Request: fold
Amino acid sequence: MSLYEYERNGNAQEIIRVLRNSDNDNIRERAATLLGRLDEHDDRDDIVQALITAAQSDDSDAVVGAAIDSLNDLGQDALEQLIATMADIDIDDGADWVRAKAFIQGLSSDIPELRMAAANGLGEIAEPEAVPELVERFQDPDPRVRARAARACGLMDDPRATDGLESLLTDPKAAVRLEAAESLGRIGNRQALTALLELYDDTDERVRRIAVNGFGKFSNDRPVEYLIDALGDASAAVRRTAVFSLIELLSNVPTEKSHEIRETVVEQLSEVEDETVVAPLVEILERSTQSSQRRNTAWLLGRVLDDESNRDAVDALVLALEDGEQMTRQFAATSLAEIGGTYAEAELLSLATDPDNDSEARGQALFTLGKIGDKETAEQIEQLLEDTEDQTVRKRAFSALSKLGGRTGQQQP
Reply:
């Protein structure tokens, strides 16, 4: 059988056998890579041990690199086993400083994949004592290591890394510059903002995108005016990134500052051309898997749309009523009530009257219809009451009718 068939059949032991016994470097490298995809396998312990052995003793640098990458893919525990074995350190007691000591030793390995993995591990542990060691890796000859070290410093949110991260903003590799910019955004101090502003006016569109993307990692309102300004950038890609960063910023700020920053964003956006903002917002609402981003997007759409002329936006909000979590549904309902219009009304009626839809989603649609509907809407809601036994839907239907002028001939439950 081939490695492909072993993978398809989930035969981890045969893949391990190939990794240990094959004379072909390419085949062993492929076997090591495949083992990294078997995280949930019953033989996970054997997989991890086989990869550790390969990482320590295989004669091929490519196989060693693939084994380390796979251990990294298998998770922090597998990575820690590798680092502990190679550093000859016992990390079973679980103390962060002991684990960090092992990973710090890994940063000086001759193997770039191990240095990358060590930087990843230190970012997960977030041990402050490792920051100086990570900053030293900003000079690493391998750009992948520089990028991972920059990311780890951002995850630690330690201002001591700011000078080093600023130096990486001119790195020849775009991936390194991006990680440095994002980490400066996470640190979010005045020096970090100043550093990103130096990229903000760059003539290269890609560099401006890096700066604007970094602004979204802040947890304060310092970059808001610059993000709003970026919505007027000549580059559509920069404008789109600015919208994404605004939503990310709203998701990052502390709860006690959220209202103030929201109002600042809305005030600034009121002066920006609708289409510049709306299309990226619709994309976020439709594609994002992060609840906080979807909630903020649903809320913001109702404040930047003047009417229902953008049907894509209305459709996205109605869809959020159907498949969003509770807060997203509520924000989408509120925004649809702000937008109003016959198209929104028709789409909401379609959602509310379809018995195949979720009861809560239908209820949210009825809540909104109670705010924007007319006499014909009331008649259709009355018909819905005749056709449904769903108590959640009935309760919201009666509430909507009450707001639309009441109902005659029947008693409310």
